[in-house]
């Protein structure tokens, strides 16, 4: 075989015969690294068909629900779409130390307790070290849980064919290597080829495979983005490794929704499910303080109440700073411009900081009005209406636009004792509240909403 040198982007896997400063595919800078590449010999390997039958007419295919393996971790099952689909390949990504190996070991223990065979491939730890970590998590293991320390892909495939487990966990893909490829483990070629071989094995043997991938700050190892087009499901852990809460989000799912999230709390015993995230996120909220407000966002089928905080102070530098945590920066700039133009707030010389408590990242436009209100509250040093949630999308002309799933948001807020709900006027149409004590306050524009929220005309 002929070996040649190529340059691969560590972010997306794009290959070039020469070094490039900027990747033309993903626009990453200084991401190319040199590696040896051996071109596969044509005709040397027989192609294996993933299906026994040939092409069939779509109308003749009998649709049936896929059998799913329940992990008994409800937050994880929710994100997966109801459980693990047999024969699927699931990628768990995230920064080092965020909890990928922890949840994988917990899933292994829960599955084996149901009599499901699991093979745990530990490439970064020895068998004894993994046992110590399992003991710390309180997982003793069962007769159906096998573990091996191996990084050779050919031996791993041999173990899988011999033991025939229903679930395989690869920890992690960055250390697995194919001896037929000359490049080093962790390179883009190794990661891509190993993941492709595991994906083909999963489809032919109907084995569910979890692949763990992590990203380093230096970008020397191939990140999980190289694998996203190969696997069936991509799960990402959000949250700082030193924070208490972790958010598990599906960014790709061929067998379920990508809007669901799972909330976990990191403990000495591992990741613990948070059954009522709204109550947890609001547990440390202070009352009678300006610059804090509560809104309801929708993550899939789950409404979450989150606290938005803001601090507006006079800038001591030549230009005003804008900082956000958990909220889109460009969206914040737009809302600040609306407050200046439509409400006459002099924010051009003010530093504005916005934070979403609990580590949640908001993408729901229903939080726009809450962000505007919390900035105005901090700027004017006025406390918002007590026990109220604020919902609504803000347009460029200052109008409050309607939002979706209003009833679900209101019911979640009422469970936690909120008494008032500021809503867009169009969202109040055909809104039926059965025996609800929640006061609905419809608003049509930003000025009207801020007057009510800051109790200037109430």
Quick gist of this model?
The chain has 458 residues and is an alpha/beta fold. Helix content is 24%, strand content 27%.
Which features does this protein show?
about 450 residues; alpha/beta; Rossmann fold; Ribosomal Protein S5, domain 2; 3 domains; four-stranded mixed beta sheet
Q: Can you name the CATH architecture of the largest domain?
A: 3-Layer(aba) Sandwich
Strand order of the largest sheet: 8-7-9-10-6-11-12-13-14
Number-wise, the strands total 23
CATH superfamily of the largest domain: P-loop containing nucleotide triphosphate hydrolases
How many strands, which pairing sense, and closed or not: the largest β-sheet?
9 strands, mixed
Beta fraction of the residues? 25-35%
Computed structural class: alpha/beta
Given the structure, what is the number of helices?
A: 10
As a whole number of angstroms, the C-alpha radius of gyration is: 26 Å
Give structural notes.
With 458 residues, the protein is of the alpha/beta class. The protein folds into three domains: 1-39; 68-274, P-loop containing nucleotide triphosphate hydrolases (Rossmann fold, 3-Layer(aba) Sandwich); 280-453, Ribosomal Protein S5, domain 2, CATH 3.30.230. It has ten helices and 23 strands. The chain has helices at residues 74-80, 100-112, 127-136, 153-163, 188-205, 277-281, 329-343, 368-380, 406-415, 446-453; strands at residues 3-9, 15-16, 32-38, 68-69, 84-85, 89-94, 118-122, 145-148, 167-171, 208-214, 233-238, 245-253, 261-267, 270-273, 292-299, 302-314, 322-325, 350-356, 388-390, 393-394, 400-401, 420-424, 439-443. It has a nine-stranded mixed β-sheet with strand order 8-7-9-10-6-11-12-13-14, sandwiched between helices. The chain has a four-stranded mixed β-sheet with strand order 15-16-18-17.
């Amino acid at each position: 075989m002929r070996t040649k040198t190529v340059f691969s982007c560590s972010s997306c896997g794009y290959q070039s015969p020469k070094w490039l400063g900027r990747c033309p595919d993903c626009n990453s800078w200084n991401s190319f690294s040199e590696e040896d590449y051996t071109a596969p010999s044509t005709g040397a390997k027989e192609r294996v068909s993933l299906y026994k039958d040939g092409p069939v007419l779509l109308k003749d295919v009998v649709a049936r629900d896929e059998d799913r393996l329940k992990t008994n971790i409800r937050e994880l099952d929710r994100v997966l779409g109801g459980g693990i689909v047999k024969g699927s390949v699931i990628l768990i990504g995230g920064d080092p130390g965020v909890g990928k190996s922890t949840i994988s070991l917990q899933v292994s223990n829960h599955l084996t307790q149901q009599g499901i065979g699991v093979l745990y491939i530990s490439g970064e730890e020895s068998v004894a070290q993994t046992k110590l970590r399992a003991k710390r998590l309180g997982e003793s293991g069962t007769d159906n849980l096998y573990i091996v320390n191996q990084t050779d892909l050919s031996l791993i495939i041999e173990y899988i064919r011999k033991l025939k487990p229903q679930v395989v966990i690869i920890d992690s893909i960055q250390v697995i290597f194919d001896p037929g490829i000359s490049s080093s483990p962790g390179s883009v070629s190794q990661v891509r080829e190993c993941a492709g071989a595991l994906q083909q094995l999963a489809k032919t043997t109907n084995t569910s495979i979890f692949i763990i991938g992590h990203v380093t700050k230096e970008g020397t190892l191939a990140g999980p983005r190289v694998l996203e087009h190969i696997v069936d499901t991509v799960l990402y852990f959000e949250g700082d490794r030193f924070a208490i809460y972790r958010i598990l989000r599906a960014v790709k799912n061929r067998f379920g929704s990508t809007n669901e999230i799972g909330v976990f709390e990191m403990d000495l015993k591992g990741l613990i499910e948070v059954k009522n995230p709204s109550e947890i996120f609001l547990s440390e909220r202070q009352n009678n303080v300006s610059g804090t407000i509560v809104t309801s966002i929708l993550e899939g089928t789950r409404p979450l109440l989150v606290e938005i905080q803001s601090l507006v102070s006079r800038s001591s530098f030549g230009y005003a700073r804008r900082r956000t945590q958990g909220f889109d920066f460009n969206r914040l700039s737009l809302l600040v411009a609306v407050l200046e133009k439509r409400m006459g707030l002099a924010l051009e010389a003010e530093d504005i900081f916005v934070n979403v408590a609990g580590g949640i990242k908001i993408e729901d436009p229903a939080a726009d009005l809450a962000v505007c209100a919390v900035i105005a509250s901090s700027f004017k040093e006025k406390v918002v209406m007590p026990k109220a949630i604020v919902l609504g999308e803000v347009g460029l002309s200052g109008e409050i636009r309607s939002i979706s799933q209003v009833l679900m948001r209101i019911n979640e807020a009422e469970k936690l004792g909120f008494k008032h709900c500021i809503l867009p006027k169009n969202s109040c149409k055909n809104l039926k509240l059965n025996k609800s004590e929640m006061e609905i306050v419809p608003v049509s524009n930003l000025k009207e909403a801020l007057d009510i929220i800051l109790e200037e005309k109430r």
